[in-house]
């Protein structure tokens, strides 16, 4: 290690013989400086480059080691410097006092050079590791801030062209002077609905961050889950057909006209759409994804497909960024779905096997008229 890279140690002792012995123990590995009083040590530390570690005698005239340690720990410039007390005192109370003031270690005179070197090395290695962890933590925080800024900018920049995607077909559809045939109107309506879905996705990305932080302001209303499922099935039917998968809705008894739960419609749609889309992509070709409304008051919907979740993926199925064997997968679909369910005071779980495939069961609070919510 070069002189510029060598770690710096300050020895503080009013006895020249002790300074000489300590210096001989450490100079071959470290850059060593000395101070013969507490006042001199403070002046050196605060007016020059701070050392990486201090070996500090306790019994010194005018200002003892305890007072030096106290002042160092009170000053932001020096509070993080590790201090090892070196003293002839051996009372347990003295050692406790030094540690309570912020010292990291305590060695007594007469001392062994090998022990001094080992203690110094251990504490310097620990400090260096702490510094590296702190540096990495600062980098991660900077990356997180940069990611949030980029996401915020992206959401803003996406809204500008999206205004055209939404407003232009809407203007054309509302223009009575245009004689649009049904096929053209259908195409414009498809563009319009796709634009609104994209706008909802942009808004949802910000909402998911708030859900993770526990700051999302839930505004629950009575939501017709049957209506939400119908929208999801209609919007994903083309995707299902491309994967040669059927979408089937199932009622345990007579078909329900409506099933009200307490939540937010956009959240319900996003949660259900994510799970159905995943089920479509996990299904064998020629099979079906079945959405079943459940009569159990604590459960409301299940989504079943014949695909099987790999054993390695099951413990982390709902974890963030967890994805197995899915090309282009982000690992956010099931994670965001469960996060949404929990935000709406519900939850979800799954069962999977080679014999039965995979079923995800969603639990959401049923609508209670007495709660003052109007369907």
Automatic annotation (TrEMBL):
Key words, A-Z: Kinase, Phosphoprotein, Transferase
Top EC class of this enzyme: transferase
Pfam family, one: HATPase_c
Protein species of origin: Acanthopleuribacter pedis
UniProt-recorded Gene Ontology molecular function terms: phosphorelay sensor kinase activity
Catalyses which reaction(s): ATP + protein L-histidine = ADP + protein N-phospho-L-histidine
Residue numbers bearing the 4-aspartylphosphate modification: 57
UniProt keyword Transferase present: yes
SUPFAM superfamilies: ATPase domain of HSP90 chaperone/DNA topoisomerase II/histidine kinase (SSF55874), CheY-like (SSF52172), Homodimeric domain of signal transducing histidine kinase (SSF47384)
Protein name in UniProt: histidine kinase
Residue ranges of domain Response regulatory in the record: 8-124
Gene3D superfamilies attached to this UniProt entry: 1.10.287.130, 3.40.50.2300, Histidine kinase-like ATPase, C-terminal domain
InterPro entries noted in UniProt: CheY-like_superfamily, HATPase_C_sf, HATPase_dom, His_kinase_dom, HisK_dim/P_dom, HisK_dim/P_sf, Sig_transdc_resp-reg_receiver
Domain Histidine kinase stretches: 153-368
EC number: 2.7.13.3
